[in-house]
Structures are given as structure tokens and as C-alpha cells.
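Re: folding output
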Amino acid sequence: MRFLFLIFLVVGLGLGGFAVYTAKSRFDAYEVRLAHTLELESQQNSYVSVAVARRNLAYGSEITTNHVLFVDFPTRVVDIVGENWFLTEEALFDTNSDTLNVLRNIEMGEPITRSKISGFGQDVGMAARLGEGFRAFTIRVDVASGVSGFLTPSDRVDVFWSGRFRGEAVTRLIMENMQLIAVDQISDQDRNRPVVARTITVRATPQQAALLAQAQTSGALSLSLRGIGDVAETGDVEVNLDDVVGYVAPEPVIAEEIIPEVIAPRRTITIRRGSDVSTVNAD
């Protein structure tokens, strides 16, 4: 009986200890979840004022203080966006100028970001988007060479030249990954309606602009639209009419050397009988 009592005592103590451990673990997990919930609630209750558009702002329009409204956003959202948003009126407007220009359409209530507006006092035209060391160069195109009107500003294209070189018709890739900054007289990046353009303007270095000018006067230029994010270099690409029709020039025939036949001299035997002399072939 005493041994059985000891067994029940040990088992009871083990079950009690397990219950206490389980209860403590649950309470600890609950405290952690409660602390996390309180932290989230404190973050949600923390707000920062952000500059948004009071009404729709179209491309090219000016932004003044009357176009801007400051709305409270959760601090955690602003922390994710970083410095792309404007938190104060002083950060948005220059102290010497109270106007900005819209580079891309801004919807009503949308936060005003640095990528959609020009710098302080800058023009909204192409000159504001070229950057130091670059030039704007215009290429004449038609419905075929202009990718059927599906080119829009900010697209990237490859440029092919077709013409005659040393008496042979060739087509060659001369420029890769060039950025379009205008189609006809339109530089709005949000334009999404296909337009058959007569000219396109690309962003080029002075050396590239000179090469394009020479190529345009000596032949025809065609554009090939690149996919979004495609920055791979194609390398040298050049074809002629032989490549188009699949013509392969025959290999030149090498004439065999003719060795003249050597004729061995005949052997003869001379027979003398008195005054008679005769010759007999020895072969």
C-alpha cells in the first residue's frame, strides 16, 4: 500500500508540474501578443501630415499652394515610402518660388512625389529631363519605322540603319537602348493612346547625336521597341541581301596542276653487214 501511494504521489506531482508549465507558457505567449498589439495600436495612432493633390493635376500644369492639401497618414506607411513624399510645405516649395510643374499626371488625393514634379523653378519641357551631358536628337519616322505608333515617351528602342555601303545594301544595328523623351511634340509620359508619329526625339550623347545625324542623311533609320527592363546588349548585328534570301556563295574551284608526261627515249640497235647499215628497235 505504501509503494502504491508513492506511485500515485509521483504521478500527481508530475501532472501538476506539467499543468503549471503549460499555464505559464500560455500566459507568456499572451503577454507577448498583448505587447505586440499595443505597439501596433500605438503606431496606428501615430500620424504624419503628407502633401496630396487637392484636385486632378494634368501634365504640364503648375502646382501652387492652392493645389496642395496636407492629409494625415500612418507613420509606418510614411516610413516605408521614405523621402519620396513631402511632409511639410517648406519641403515641397522653394523659398524663392511658390510654383512647381507636373511631369506626370497626379490624381486628386494622391500624394505628391518627387518623381512626378519638376525641380524648383524648372521648366516642364524636355530640357528639364535631359540631364547633364545629354542632347535631344530628332529622328524622322513613319508608320513602319515608328513601330506602328506604339512608341511613348520613356520607352527604350534600338536604332537600325539601312543603306548602301561599298556598293552593297546592308542593314546594321547602330544604337542600343536609347530612351525616348518625346513623340512628335508630346513628352507626356502618361500618354497611352497609339499615335502614328512623324518624328521621335531621343536622349543621346553628342557622339551618338553625330552618328545618328550622319546615318539619317546617308540611309533610312528604323526603330525596334525594347521590353520593359530589357537592358541586355545585343552586340554587332548586320545583314545583307545574301542573308535575307539565304544565298551561300560557292567555294572557289582550285585547278589541278597538270604534270607533263615524260616520254622515255626509244632504244635502238644498229646492225652493220659490210657496207649495209640497219637500225632495229630494241624494245
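--- second protein (sequence, then structure) ---
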Amino acid sequence: MDDTPDPAPSPDVKFLKWLVTTLAAVMICGVLAVVIVLVIRLRPTPPPLPSEITLPGGARATAVTQGDDWIAIVTEAEEILVYDRLTGRLRQRVQIAPQDAATR
């Protein structure tokens, strides 16, 4: 076995090592910047909602869904109440016809 130490690296190898390290750091910063920009730009914004919706006559909601300009609430009394999204005013009431036992 040869116990002679390795010769000192040439200046070109030192420069190449510095260049590769710098390139890796710049690429990591670039990937982080792209991820941060994507997270900021693609964050979902909640749709505008009325400050309050009052259900008529002590009705209790069992389900809620929404469209572009309306909110629908299904009540325990088998009724669908359609409200305006911005004002919260009741637009329409739809009574759900109960199913008879023979069609179940």
C-alpha cells in the first residue's frame, strides 16, 4: 500500500467545486420561490356570503349547498329554501314530495 498523500487539488477543481455548490444553492432557492408563488397565487378564496340567513318558522337545516349566486338549505320539514347569496333574502321555497313506501 502506498501511504503517500493525495496531491493538492488544482485551482480548476476548486473553482468547479465552488461553481457546483453555488448552482445547487441557486436551484434550491429557485424551487422554493416557485413553490411559494404557487401557494400564494393558487390559494382558494372563499365565496362571498351574506352576514346572516334566517330560517323561517323554527326550521332546522339538514343540508346546505351553493351555486354561483344562490344558497340552498334543505330543512327537516322536507323543504328546500333557496336564498340569494349576496343579500341573504329568500328567493324560492320548494316542497319535497314524500316518497310512498311502495317506491322505496
